[in-house]
């Protein structure tokens, strides 16, 4: 049976786990305007970030990307990442475990 949930029902901030099953880890990220998540890495994962609302400046390594609703970014979690909310923003983030090739 599929798991069905509503992102608006999640109350934790800035990170809310979407599902109880951690694989792949799925998080609703909610940031208030001018809020930044400090630079960090997720080395065991490939990451997909989908901006749902607001405006986000996403710093990946030395590059910065201006994201708006509907934008999707996929990147290796071994890169430094730091999202910054230009305005109140919500994104869905999926951390897919890396697999051996």
CATH class categorisation: Mainly Beta
**Subunit organisation of the chains:** single chain
Domain module count: 1
Biggest β-sheet description:
6 strands, antiparallel
| Residue windows where pLDDT falls under 50 for at least 5 positions | none
What percentage of the residues does DSSP assign to strands (E)?
over 45%
Rg measurement, Å: 13 Å
N→C terminal distance = 30 Å
Strand tally is 6
Q: What would you call the shape?
A: globular
Coarse structural class: mainly beta
CATH superfamily: Jelly Rolls
Total number of helices = 0
CATH architecture: Sandwich
Sequence-ordered SSE layout with sheet pairings:
Layout lengths: L14 E3 L7 E7 L13 E16 L2 E5 L4 E5 L4 E17 L4
Antiparallel strand pairs: 1-2, 2-6, 3-4, 3-5, 3-6
Protein name: Cupin domain-containing protein
InterPro entries: Cupin_2, RmlC-like_jellyroll, RmlC_Cupin_sf
Overview of this protein structure:
By secondary structure, the protein is mostly beta strands. It has a single domain, classed as Jelly Rolls. It is built from no helices and six strands. Strands 1, 2, 3, 4, 5 and 6 form a six-stranded antiparallel beta sheet that branches. Strand 3 and strand 4 form a beta hairpin. The termini are far apart. The mean pLDDT is 90. Pfam families: Cupin_2 (PF07883). This is Cupin domain-containing protein. InterPro entries: Cupin_2, RmlC-like_jellyroll, RmlC_Cupin_sf.
């Amino acid at each position: 049976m599929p798991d069905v949930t509503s992102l608006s029902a999640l109350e934790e901030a800035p990170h809310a786990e979407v599902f109880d099953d951690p694989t792949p880890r799925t998080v609703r990220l909610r940031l208030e305007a001018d809020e930044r998540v400090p630079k960090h890495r997720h080395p065991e994962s490939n990451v997909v970030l989908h901006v749902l609302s607001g405006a986000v400046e996403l710093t990946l390594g030395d590059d910065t990307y201006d994201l708006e609703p509907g934008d999707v970014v996929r990147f290796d979690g071994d890169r430094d990442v730091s999202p910054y909310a230009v305005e109140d923003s919500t994104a869905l983030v999926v951390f897919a475990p890396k697999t051996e090739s």
